Amino acid sequence: MPYRPKDIYRGRRKFRVPLNIFLFVLVFLIVGSVGAFYLLQQFIVYDASGVHLEFSGGRETPAPEQSDATPEPTVEPVTVEVIWEDPDFAEVDLGGWEDLEPVKGLFVPQQTVTDPNALASAVSLVTSGDFYSGAVLEMKSRSGQLVWPSAAATAVAYGTAGATDVTGVIAELHAAGKTVAAQISCFADNLLIARNWTVALQSGGAAYVDGNGVSWADPYNRTVRAYITDLAQELAAMGFDEIILADLYHPISESGFTYTVTLRTAPNPVVAVCQLGKRVAEALAGTGTAVSARLDATSLRTGQGSQTGQDIDIFWRLFARLYCPTYPDVLASDMEMALDQLNDGEADVRFVPVIGVVPENCASYVISG
Fold it and tell me: What pTM was computed for the model?
């Protein structure tokens, strides 16, 4: 006989109804608590006594407590116009040559300075006898790459610092009784301008690049001037006896130039160039490190000093020595033109030919490879 569902016996489920009631109440409490939390947020008050609810309407937002701490400055872009006026160099005479002796140096180019084996050979050559009295290390070439791990702000910002520590070499040369000079390129700087074109000297609407593919910085630019000064101070602190400023001149172009600053007077290369020389020399005054300059031989021979900024009369009063790249057949005439305006000190100490062979009748010279 077939069975019917309601004929089957089922036991009584005693706990179903209470369990349903419990779950309903639990859900109600959870939903109610969440709703109350968001509803009462507008009445929560935080004060010195703790956290409590305040249901009185029209509550005012308390004024923020005053603090004695100095607020952080708000940085806003500001356009600054720098106006250059011509300084007076008539009374400038910085000296720095009084304690110097004639120098017979070996020029060590940057690629040798950064090669440990090649540098060791050069140092050995200088220290092995009395032929050389010292060495000139090229610490910044026209490439713009520095030899040493500089901490100067501009070097850090634009990644121009090197990785070669030459302090041991300086100590070794000093221990042998030799002098050590550092040569740095000033306005010729490919790397800095490639990474910060805003400091470039402009010509024809673009950054100026000379016939040799070298980029030139604006000699009036404050960043450039501070950069060179910072580098010179670092090198003096490392123990160099002398800093030689190379490429300290204004290039010449038929297209004319545009500068990164506003000039009150007409552009004056002598002012632009000599002002940096004066700044570096003054920054190193009292450090025991002499500041010298490397002449642009072309402008010396062609009489273009007013266009390149290398006024020989002012240079003699700014710098301890003047280094002049030259050749045996023109050495005599180069010396005559450079020394014509020398008024103080001995020519054998202050004028230094940079030449490939030992020159005749010169107490000072630097042998270049």
Answer: 0.77
H-assigned helices in the chain: 16-40, 110-113, 116-127, 153-158, 167-175, 190-195, 222-238, 269-283, 297-302, 305-308, 312-318, 331-339, 347-350
pLDDT, tens only, 1-55: 454 544 544 445 555 566 667 666 676 667 666 566 555 555 544 444 444 555 5
CATH of domain 94-367: 3.20.20.80
Q: For residues 55 and 33, what is the distance between their CA atoms, to the nearest angstrom?
A: 18
Give the span between the Cα atoms of 163 and 146, in whole angstroms. 8
Question: Whose structure tokens read 């005054």?
Answer: 285
Distance in angstroms (rounded) separating the CA atoms of residues 186 and 205 = 23
Q: What is the dihedral of CA 297, 301, 305, 307, to 10 degrees?
A: -90
Q: In angstroms, what CA-CA distances link 181 with 63, 129, 160, 291?
A: 64, 19, 21, 10
pLDDT per residue as tens digits for the range 331-356: 999 999 999 999 999 999 999 999 99
Closest CA to 272 of 193, 216, 343: 216
Whose tokens are 């300290």? That residue is: 248
- Spell out the domain ranges in the chain: 15-53, 94-367
Helix 116-127, helix 167-175: angle, nearest 10 = 20
